[in-house]
Amino acid sequence: MTLTDTYTLANGAKIPVVGFGTWQSADGDEAYTAVKAALKAGYRHIDTAQVYHNEASVGKAVAEWLAAGGKREELWITTKLWLQDSSEAAYDALLESLKKLQLDYVDLYLIHWPNPAPFRENPGYEARNREVWKGMEKAVRDGLTKNIGISNFHPHHIDALLKTATIAPVVNQILVNPSDQQEELVSYNKAHNILTEAYSPFGTGKIFSIDSLSTLAAKYHKSVAQIVLAWSLAKGLLPLPKSVTPSRIAENAEIFDISLSSEDIAAIDALKGQAGSSNNPDEVGF
Fold it and tell me: Which of 84, 121, 142, 188 has its CA 20 to 30 A from that of 224?
């Protein structure tokens, strides 16, 4: 397996098994340099979002890579919808993201959160998600995105969306790492042919304080980050590691020679709660 190996989504699309995350990468030199380093290291899957406010920097790095001879069809670019609440607004938001990214289309467009605070009153999140999904489906028909999906959705949010969706979500991007494995949600995704993408695979850095992971890393002659990413792949997840340090970006790609034993996978599974947990999407403050 390599960075260009893929999972096959429910609709037949091929998505690279590891993506490069850009959450908390500042717009400007930081995000631009990080994405440039990721592309140089061999990543072909880049994840950004409207609310990250770094799409222009991501787009600059991608545009330079393409200008140097890279092929658009070899890339997978994801972005996400923020707090829009109508089909037209969802569609227009993607047009704006495409402009910043300097692209004609993205490979995946996600609803970032299912139930932000502004939509908890009447008519509620179900009506909001139904409307923005219509705009996202139109974006698929118009060629602005190849695929559509969701992020931070729990089963009741997905059940509600599926009542009216004519295109099923192919991905649910959620926080998954050894400290919060969200097993029930991952199982639900799998049962509905939805691939689980794992953001914050390092728990925004908190997993590095777990001593047993350092012990495992030494056993395999790898870094803690590499061990956690190998665990994620062993679970059938698609991890989205983030770094702004070129050496670590390259190091995080060197994971495909790791074969964790079943005992070591079980030891990592036992680390629940040791480095924080995900936010309840029905209670987030934004």
Answer: 188
| Residue 171 contacts residue 110 (beta carbons within 8 Å) | yes
Indicate which residue of 32, 43, 52, 125 is catalytic.
52
Residues of the chain short of pLDDT 70, as ranges, are none
Neighbours of 185 (CB within 10 A): 21
Q: Which domains does the chain have, with CATH numbers?
A: 15-269 (3.20.20.100)
pLDDT digit string (tens) for 58-83?
999 999 999 999 999 999 999 999 99
Supply the angle between the helices 87-101 and 124-141 in degrees, to the nearest 10: 50
- The pTM of the full predicted model, rounded to 2 decimals, is 0.97
User: Could you give the CA distance from residue 62 to residue 59 in angstroms, rounded to a whole number?
Assistant: 5
Specify the pairing of strand 45-47 against strand 20-21: parallel
CB 77 within 8 A of CB 103: yes
Please say if 52 is a catalytic residue: yes
How long, in residues, is the chain? 286
